[in-house]
Amino acid sequence: MTVHGVAMLTDRGLSAGLAAGVMSTVALAGTLRRIAGGYLMDIFPAPRVAAGVFVLAAAGAAMLLFGVSSGWCWAAMTCIGLGAGADVDVLTYLVSG
């Protein structure tokens, strides 16, 4: 979704500049996810943290599917950014533990 994000957002009616700005939140949210996810997996059981992250990513995909305004697109791509790539982080944590 991150590769074609700008094209998907411009198809929804956002300008190219705004779509690029929305996609920058994916990278920012991914960075936040790596820091906060590791901390949360130290405190809570990793499978529960993983489930929460993946549900959040699925909610972002649903918001992108049904949302039509730029605010919905910002929220959806933030949720997707929080979940994108989390499988690798969670898998390494579960295998090493």
Structural class: mainly alpha
From the spread of the alpha carbons, the general shape counts as elongated
Termini Cα gap: 30 Å
Helix and strand element order: HHHHH
Largest sheet: none
Rg (C-alpha, Å): 14 Å
Uncertain segments are none
Mean pLDDT: 86
* Assembly form of the protein: single chain
SS elements, strand count: 0
Fraction in helix: over 70%
Please count the helical segments.
5
> Which band does the percent of strand residues land in?
under 5%
Provide structural commentary.
The chain is an all-alpha fold. The protein has helices at 5-11, 16-43, 46-66, 70-83, 86-96. Helix 1 (5-11) packs across helix 2 (16-43) and helix 2 (16-43) packs parallel to helix 5 (86-96). The protein is elongated. The model has no long low-confidence stretch (mean pLDDT 86).
Draw up the topology in text.
Blueprint: H1 5-11, H2 16-43, H3 46-66, H4 70-83, H5 86-96
List keywords for this structure.
mainly alpha, single chain, 5 helices, 97 residues
Briefly summarize what is shown.
The protein has 97 residues and is mainly alpha-helical.
